[in-house]
Amino acid sequence: MPRTEVVFYREPNGKAPVVAWLEMLKKKDRQAFAKCAALIRRLALEGHELRRPAADYLRDGIHELRARHGKVRYRLLYFFHGRNVAVLGHALTKKREIPQADLQRALDRKHAFAADPEAHTYQETVS
Prior knowledge:
Layout: E1 5-8, H1 17-28, H2 30-46, E2 55-59, E3 62-69, E4 72-80, E5 85-94, H3 100-115
Helix pairs in contact: 1-2
């Protein structure tokens, strides 16, 4: 299977919510950040083949990467665009179920990305 390109969803204002969440997590809990980063690398290697417990399908094309550190569960919501592109669109810390508002936000981002992938693909700039 070809390697999956993992990209981050970008809002119209240029910000990437998952990138910001990961930066905050890196400052707050480096071990949890490392687990999430490792899962993103696995997603790039395994793509559609990644399964539980690392990943799971939620609904309407939205999947989740699943990390746990201590008693905290970290979730990175993503969707596929075509066969080999996974878009990380939303991240959260959860206690039990993923709130419907978070799922809806991920779905809205999926639709926006599908309508204009170039406008919604985060490109890191080096200054």
